[in-house]
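Thread: Newbie trying to understand structure tokens

Hi all, I'm a second-year student working on a class project, and my supervisor (Dr. K.) asked me to get a predicted structure for one chain before our next meeting. I've only ever worked with sequences, so writing a 3D structure as a token string is new to me. If someone could post the tokens and maybe explain what I'm looking at, I'd be very grateful. Here's the chain:
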Amino acid sequence: MKRKGILIVVSGFSGAGKGTLMKELLKQYDNYALSISATTRKAREGEEDGREYFFKTVEEFEKMIAKDELIEYARYVGNYYGTPRAYVEEQLEAGKDVILEIEIQGALKVKEKYPDTLLLFVTPPSAKELERRLVGRGTETMEVIASRMKRATEEAEIMSAYDYIVVNDELDICVKETHNIIQSEHNRVFRNKDFMNQIEEELKGKSKGE
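---
Reply by user tm_fold:
Sure, no problem. This is what the structure looks like when written as tokens:
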């Protein structure tokens, strides 16, 4: 029986290590596809269309919005970012589990459109550890770090809207736990209605034949 992929949305606090977790998951297991976003921002040096992003003009992007070709989209600092529906659906039909790494608001919009979506929230083991990681990056001022911590406080209130909390303490353990959660999801009853109907019909056929 060929199984369809699951749409997985991963969110979490800035500094929780979402990007690193996703990279390791894709490196260690071959059944995952990371969704590629479309954007109107210009490509940076070394970036390729269709690899890091699908690069679009504002006109092209707004046509995609009008034609309902995006699962979700948002505008940040004057540029559009969004998740193309066609790419995601192709990957799901091919049996890949598709991961979208997006913000909480976008995640909840996806869940509205696709109720079967699996929502994962990545967090460090403590607020103290979150702050330590943000400081450890060495790329942001203390003012920016304080604003990220404040935002994390607000985001923590929405954690209960997610299906699973993933505590990213030791990366290797976290990768295995995330993989196990996703694979267990494939066996949920509501994801296997066709299979259950098939077994039921086969059993009815057998009992009639007896």
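A couple of things are worth pointing out once you decode it. The mean pLDDT is 91. The radius of gyration is 20 Å. Feel free to ask follow-ups in this thread.
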